[in-house]
Amino acid sequence: MKLLVTVLVTLIPLLPSAWGSEASRTCIFQTLSKPDHEFCRGGLEVIYPEVGDVSCSYIPKCHGFRQKLSGEWGQPRVRYPHAKKSKKYVLVMVDPDSPNRANPQHRFWRHWLVTDILGSDLKVGKIRGKVLTNYSRPKPPRYSGYHRYQFRLYRQPPHEAIALSTEDQESLGTWNLKDFVEDFDLGHPVASTQFLTKSYKD
């Protein structure tokens, strides 16, 4: 009994520090506030390694998540549970805050554009289709604050062949998303979401 008491007395001072280190490893994903939260609708999921679904949240700096997002992780899994299996969809990923949210001269910066995505693939998070713009990792410049990275999912009209103009192919920035949507009669997104992040060096 005396030995047991001695062991407990020895361990007690160590316990708070153990709990503290566990707390320091906790990484909190803060949900977006209005009006940014209102952009998220339809149940679209954006899934990256280690963190899972980042829809409608800030990417925290802890565990190097912002750095991994900008330099390591490839394209996310994008899942839309409500997709119609036999329909086709168009996925757009853009940054409306280039070079910064206060002065977005290069809105919209196109990060990813895929057409002809089958609903059956979308339901399980596979983005397979015609890639018009390869995935480009989010890399906000230093001191430019938070950038929104928006995902918009459109139902693709039947038999509609979608393409970028020669001018748009040559540049990712200052893309006229509104004209693109109107040119191909995409209508309103069936689902949309976004996450916010900033330079990991800030």
TrEMBL record:
It comes from the Eukaryota. The keyword Metal-binding does not apply. The keyword Signal applies. Transmembrane segments: none annotated. Pfam families: PBP. Residues 1-20 form the signal peptide. Belongs to the phosphatidylethanolamine-binding protein family. Keywords: Signal. InterPro entries: PEBP (IPR008914), PEBP-like_sf (IPR036610), PEBP_euk (IPR035810), Phosphatidylethanolamine-bd_CS (IPR001858). It comes from Hirundo rustica rustica. This is Phosphatidylethanolamine-binding protein 4. Gene3D superfamilies: PEBP-like. Coiled coil: none annotated. SUPFAM superfamilies: PEBP-like. PROSITE patterns: PBP.
